[in-house]
Amino acid sequence: MKKYNVLVVDDDKEIVRSIELFLKADGYEVIKAYNGLEAIDAVMENEIHLIILDIMMPELNGVETLIKIRTAKNIPVILLSAKSEDCDKILGLTAGADDYVTKPFNPSELMARVKSQIRRYTMLGGMKEEENIIKIGTMTVDTDKKTVTVDGEAIKLTKLEYKIVELLAKNEGKVFSVDEIYRIVWKDDTIVSDNAVAVHIRHIREKIEINPKEPKFLKVVWGIGYKISLD
Fold first, then answer.
1. 55-91 burial string, b = 16+ CB within 10 Å, else e?
2. Which of 125, 137, 208, 227 is most buried, most CB within 10 Å of its CB?
3. How many helices and strands, by DSSP H and E, does the chain display?
């Protein structure tokens, strides 16, 4: 039986813990986040099949978080809110939510909605048979085995180098700034010099590119950041 990963996002840790218990009882794997920024990082770093997302959170609220996630991923999202007004429901659904549950919620109802959204997502082809395999031209990234091959040849990468490749490959064509790469890969919010990331990028290019000076996969977008793309 396939394991499905559910991301639970709420600044109330007791609510997250409660939902986690219900999900695990039904056989789901649970990834937790306590604000919008952590949620975005979790989506970029993990294979997520469904998100349960609270609306009222500090820093980045649920609707703002949803809008940012929707620019890169088409994952089912169930919004949670203590508010019951129609305007909040409409705002969330307009932003791209798939369902809406008002607190306090019935655990059985929430689990039924989780099952329904995952079943719908699967039936519509949102999940591919080999979700762990990312193919970009002749480069293959196996996110389960944490391996990278180019033209069928295994590439030996350090842990940080692999994490950079996986992040960019999972978001093919999307440009990540130096600060974004550092925060997600190093899991550190401190400011970093461009050189720290650039050195790793150079080493990756030397390993995966035939001609690092004319990269086929890993490219710089001057003044913005880096991306993996065949364009």
1. bbbeebbbbebbebbeeebebbbbbbbeeeeeebbeb
2. 208
3. 8, 11
Give the structural domain span for 117. 5-123
Q: Which residues contact 209 (CB under 8 A, 6 or more apart)?
A: 215, 216, 217, 218
Predicted TM-score of the model (pTM): 0.60
- Nearby residues of 21 by Cβ (< 8 Å), 6 or more positions away: none
* Residues 42-89: tens digit of each pLDDT: 998 888 999 999 998 888 889 899 988 887 788 899 999 876 656 766
What residues form DSSP beta bridges with 77? 51
**Total tally of structural domains belonging to the chain:** 2
Claim to verify: residue 184 and residue 224 sit in the same structural domain? yes
Q: Looking at residue 25, which CATH number applies to its domain?
A: 3.40.50.2300
Q: Are residues 118 and 142 in the same domain?
A: no
- Nearest CA-CA partner of 103 in 79, 77, 75: 79
Residue with tokens 């396939």: 2
CA distance 214 to 204: 13
